[in-house]
Amino acid sequence: MVTEGRMPHATLLLGPPGSGSLALALATASYLLCTGNKEADVCGACAHCLKSQKLIHPDLHFSFPVTGANVVSDHHLPAWRLALLENPYLDVNSWLQRIGAENKQGNLNKDECLSIIHKISLKPFESEQRVLVLWMPEFLGKEGNRLLKLIEEPPAQTYFILVAENAELILPTLLSRCQLVKIPPLPDQDVVRGLAHRFPEVSDQAPAIAYLANGNFNEALLIAQRKDNPEANAFLDWMRKAYQGNGQELVRWAEQAASWGRENQKHFLQFSLYFLRELLALKIGGGLAVRLQQSELEAAQRLASLLEVEMMEQLSRLWSDNMLGVERNAHPKILFLDASIQMHHIMRQGPR
Questions:
Q1: Which of 89, 212, 228, 305 would give a disulfide with 217, using CB separation of 3.0 to 4.6 Å?
Q2: Domain count across the chain
C-alpha cells in the first residue's frame, strides 16, 4: 500500500492476540518515516530509521491503554518503549500489569483523546510524514467520538494506524473511517522459527509449543519460559472446589480471586472460556486438535467424563456474564462466590 501510494490516512489492523498486528504497525510506521532506499524494507541506516528502531522518533506517536484518572500514554512512554523493544507481541493484560494496574481497568480516556488532538495539531518535527499508532481502540468507548473529525480529515501526510483485537467493541463510526486490514493468526511454522531464534534451548519443543499457542506468539513465549500455567492451576482448583461445594473453601477461593485485580480477573475468565472450548472439542472430537498442555489435557479428560455438553453451555454463559460483571465493577468477592455456587449446582444437579 505504501509503495503504490495507496496508504489510507487511517488503517485498522485487526488480528487476534499475539498475531503480530502491533509489530506490523511498528514496521509500517518505520517504513513510512524512512527516507533511505526502501524498495523491499526500511533502509535501517538513515536518521529516521535509527530513531524509529529505538521508538524515539519525534514524529512517531503512540496511544495505548493506561489506568487512573487524568493519566495519558505519555506518562508511561518510557515503560511502553521498553515493553515493545522486549516483546512487540505483548497482550494488553501483560502491559497493564506492567504499569501496576492492580484493581484498576485500562482505558483510553478523555485526556488521552485531547492529547492526541494536540499532538496532531502541531507541525511534524523532522519528517515529512507523521504517524500515530493507537493500540487497542476498544478501550476508547464513547470517548472515541472526540477523534472522529480528526481521523476523517487529518492534516496532510498524517497517518493513523489502529491496532485492535475485537471490532465489536469499537465505535461503528470510528470503524467506518478506517480501512480494515485483517491479520490472521501466525502459522505454526513461523512461531517455531521465532521460538528457535529467541530460545534456541527449546528448539526440540518448539513444534509442540507452537501447536499449543495456536498462532499466538506471545502465548508461545510464555509457554517456552514456564513449566506450568498458573491460570490453568487456578482454574482447575476452582472447578474442583466448586464441584465439592465446601462453603468455607468457596469463600476462601472467592476472597483470593477478589485480590487479583480486575484485569487479571478478566484474563482468568477468558482462559476459563478457552479451556471450556478445548474441553468441548475433547468431548465431541475425542481428543483431536485439543490445544492444552499435557497436565491440562489430563485434567480435561477427567472433566469430560463429568460434564455434559449442556452443562458446558451453562458454564460458558455464566463465565461470560461474570466477565461483563467484572467490566462493570461488580463486587468481585460476591461475583466469584455466586459463580462458584452456580457452578456447583450445574455440575451436581445437571443442566436446567
A1: 89
A2: 3
